[in-house]
Please model this.
Amino acid sequence: MGRMNVTAEIVSKETAPYLSAPALAAMVRKYDPSVSTKKLERAYRLCMESHGKQMRHSGDPYYAHPIAVAQIAAQLRMDTDSICTALLHDVLEDTDTTEDDMRSEFGDVVTDLVKGVTKLGQLELSSTELSPEDKQAENFQKFVLAMSKDIRVLLVKLCDRLHNMRTLQYHPKASSRERISRETMEIYAPLARKIGVDRLCSELEDLSFKFLNPSAYESINKRLSAWRESQDAAISQLSIMLRDVLGKNKVNARIYGREKRPFAIWRKLQRQGIAFEDVADIYAFRIIVDDVSDCYEVLGLLHREWRCVPARFRDFISVPKPNGYQSLHTTILGPDNQRVEVQIRTQAMDDIAERGVAAHWSYKNKSYSYDESKAGDIDPLHRIRPLVEMMGHGGEADEFMELAKLEMYADQVFTFTPKNKLIALPQGATPLDFAYAVHTKVGDTCIGAIINGRERPLRTQLQNGDVVKIIRGGTPEPTPGWESMVVTGKARSALRRLTRTGESQEFRSIGYMLVDHAFAREDKEFSETILRDTLKRLNFDTVDDLYIALGRGKLSVGEFMDAVFPGRKHNQDLNKFENRDLIDDNTAKFYVKGEGLREGVGLHLGECCYPIPGDRIVGIHTKEKGIVIHTIDCDLLAELENEPDSWLDLAWRRGADNTASIGQITATIEHVPGALAAIATIIGEAGGNLTNIHTLKRSPSFFDMVMDIEVTDAKHLSQIVAAMRASAYVVTVRRARANTSEGSI
Ligand code: MN
Model:
């Protein structure tokens, strides 16, 4: 016996001229005796009438295409509604026949199926590069599944695509041939595999392969025919031996062979980096038996007769593939030690292996319908979502079984750019998320959105299939409120960064103001030339960076002035003054008096409470720092209660009141553009000088900051605090110490 029959294409090439209506009906009647010939013929007629004189690129009348698609669907043994859908699938889009016409003549099921196929046809899925990294192809697959709803939509679409691929050589545009082939290879063929329709999948792959990589296709075919020639005898011999073994043991079986398809071989060569000769399963025998126990019996017989390759044994009966495929695979060492794969399964399994989901329709109780019992756990007709979900999980069989039980897949929306690039987003996403998903620059300059041709608010939640055009403006002006409008991390962090840029401008002007005040206070001429010399010392690149650091409080004004004027007099550093009761020379700011102040002992203002004239104060003697002055209500004092010896009664000296002092306040300010500048203005107008600023914490909504303000006395500071309280931007403001009561100021 010669070479086994190689699994043929479903139809042998473009059948010319085309199937007649009675021939089509006869085809269907073979597997569905209940077929309504009339309905089929009406669909056939409407198809011909609607497409009329339209032509295809091949020169055939257009209706030859839907008829061919119907023929492929019939070969998959699909139900009458599906065959009608195949006949009518291009009618709504390409002809004058309306949806209402169709609905009144064919009812809701066929009309909705046709609409589903039409919708899929309107997508140009691979207009952009599909790289595995961004999962575009996988997202497209999910999208197509989600759009299909009824699995028959996808099945008819795949038949349609198969016929278009078979006639693709007539398409005049090379770029379109390439696009369609790529789309087929990356989206439709994998989908066909996922719903188990191997027949469609392998032919779709091979046809795309031929167009996408003609030279590789050519060379694989050459190698294949050479291989056939060399192996023909061995295969025949093994075929006879197999039949003998099964015959001797009285196993009722059908044996046929299948040759691996060119693209499948090519993929294996690429993925596994092996040579053509090393592809172990170029040829495989299939043994089809009556029931499952026969499968295992045959397996035992083969393993007794020949040595098997243990590493290549697979039991897909006990653990089916995610798409429902079941079979035993074993590789045996034949007469000359050549390795041959044998696949053992029942007729029903073989049917599912070839037709996948389509095999779930059957003739039973005088009607042809979807048989749920056949589907078992895998029921793509009614539960397409688990299938979609499975794809995101590599599709391990047992994992799939778990996933199949879950209700899900409402967590994503699939949207499109005007150029049909698919953007998958989480449910609840808005045009801003979309804009950032397209590109950061698009998001940064987004000022509006047009959804499906209409301008919509930026907070609109996107729906499946929305086409979104982003309106871009010159300067980005996001407000922190935008953050609540987005759900993707990318958009959120980008918006945060953007508002920070806006903030930087505010910090810059505050920093500038601080520098200006500092120079004025010390009676120095301000010039940026001086600043430039200082930059290096302070490790900044630009004057702006310096201002921003000062504005943010990352650099204190004191440090800054030290760097500008090395060796300048530290007029706020009490260490410098040896006179304790009179801290004064022409530049001094603080005067205190009290018992126990001695020559040579340093005086400091407490950094916990920043006392200023007007406050009731106490001095604490410390070993490290000399005398530290605290306000009487400073929290720190509580800890020192057991050391009364270290307490000194101090008071401000008369005459100190009109001298400027540094007061410190903490404030919580709303995190919106303009807030900081407004606060600085309030302080300025109240006669205070902001000399330092320090941000403690910044949340999306608020800043917590500490500000040093030069004031004349405590009363002055309390006036500033009151003015700040009046501002809408200020949430809380108080002196920078715990338990401050207004009365003590
Ligand atoms: Mn079509």
